[in-house]
Amino acid sequence: MFDYLGVLISIILGLALTHLLRGLSRLIHMRRTIKPYWVQVVWTFNIVLYVLAYWWGMYWWKHQAAWTVQQFFFLISYATVVFMLGSMLYPPETPSDLDLERHFFDNRKWFFGIQLLAVLLDIPETLLKGVGGLRAVPTEYVVVMPLFIAIAVTGLVTANRKVHAVLAPAWLILMLGYETLTSLDKIVS
Known about the structure:
Blueprint: H1 2-29, H2 38-58, H3 69-87, H4 100-106, H5 108-131, H6 139-157, H7 161-181
């Protein structure tokens, strides 16, 4: 069953990566007309990293012997939310006069609201793997998740550019630290 589910999750997350990488590519190709915003570019790297970490973490589910339709829909819903998160950073079509700072703040509430939802969905997903004996919940998870939630809530409620200049690098450092300190790099077949 996991192979069947894994293909669909891979497609959804692949679309998220495609959208994000295409957005970065457009920044290069349209560099004379698009006004970049460094915070938004850092968030692009953050979400690429998040998508890849989520994709990697899904592999633990391959050890699940029996599946319910609820588990199937839950994991597909989580993947869809992650796709939506990535889709908030770049518009589907790129106007030649795109101001990415304005675009970021126009979509800020959607971006951080969906980010908050993604982080909140990660909690039961991780706990289900722990309860199912697929992966122990890392002790660092208990520290990291409230910080991810705090970043998402802060980004959701404030439009202060100085605060956002701290949130994006803080998230990156937090994610890299978590991935380095946990067993995310160790999946046993």
